[in-house]
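Appendix B, record 7
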Amino acid sequence: MSVKDKIIALFNQKNELSVVEIVTLLDVSKQFVHRVLNSLLDEKLIIKIGKAPKTFYKLKEIETASLENNETFEESKIAFLNQNFLVITEIGELLTGFDGFQNWCKKRKLPISKTLDEYIITKQKYSKYFDKNNLISGLDKLKSTKGYDKIHLNELYYLDFYAIERFGKTRLGTILHYAKQGQNKMLMKMLINEIKNPINLLIRVLDIDAIAFVPPTIKRETQLMKVIENGIKVNKPKIEIIKVGGIIPIPQKSLNKIEERIANAENSFVIRGNVSFKNLLLIDDAVGSGSTLNQIAGKIKSNGLAENIIGLAIVGSYKGFDVITDV
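C-alpha cells (predicted):
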C-alpha cells in the first residue's frame, strides 16, 4: 500500500488529522506528508481547516448533488460562474465558480441546471445598472433619501451591489464581508486584486487629483481600510480624515434611523489639510445610507479642501439606501 493510500485509510479511521499526527502514525517525513496532502487537496479529496499552527485536514464529503443525470453545462455558463460566483462555506472553505455554485445548490436542495439559468438571468437584470466604466451610480438614490438637508457629494459610485435578490451576497460582497469580519489577510489581498484596477481607472477617467479614505469606527487588529489604502498604491495627495467620538464608539451599522446616522457621521469625523483640490475621490468599504460619505464630503467642502467630491464604495445596497449591518 502506498503512503497516499495509507493516509486516506487514516482519514477513514479518524475525523481530522494534523501533519504531525500523520508523521507520527506512519513514520514518514513531514515534507513527504505535505506533498501527499497537497496532492489530495488538488484532487479535492480532502479539505484543510484552521490555519497555522492549528491546521487540520479531513476527508471531503461526497457530493450527493453532483450533475443531475450526468448533465453537461455549456462552457459559457461555466465561464460566467467562474467570473461571478464565490461562496465561503460554514467551515471556512472558499469555493469559486461551478464548485461553489454546486455547493450552494446542494445546501438548499436546488436543481443545478435550472437554478444556474435563474442565476444568470438575475445577474443580467442587475447588469443594467452598470455604466460604461463598469460602475454603479448611487447619486439619485442618495438624493431621493429623506432626511438629508443637503447633498454634498457630486457623484456616488460603487463597484458592485453588496447582495442581490435570492442569491445573497455578490462575489465582491462575500470577499469584503469575510475579509473584514474574519480579519482574513488572504481575502484582503484578494479584495485588493479585485478593486485595484477599477479604482485606478476611475481616477484616470474623472481626472482625480486627490484621495481620501474613510477611517474605521471600531478598533481591530487589522484595519481593512488601511490595508486597502496601502494595497491599491494610489500616487495622489491624501486628505486626512480623523475618526473621533464619545467615550463609547458607536458604529454606523448599529444605527437604524437615517437621522441618527447623519448625526453620528457629522460628529465623528475631523478633516485635516491645507491644500485645495479640484476633484477628490472619497473611498469607503460599503454604502448603506450614504450618510458617512455625504457628511464627510460636507466637512471637506466647508474647509475649502475640494471643489468636487466623488464618493466611491466597494459595495452598496441595491434597494434604496438600506442599512448594511454586517460589514
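Remarks on this record: Residues 117 and 178 are 27 Å apart (CA to CA). The chain has three domains: 3-59, 68-127, 136-316.
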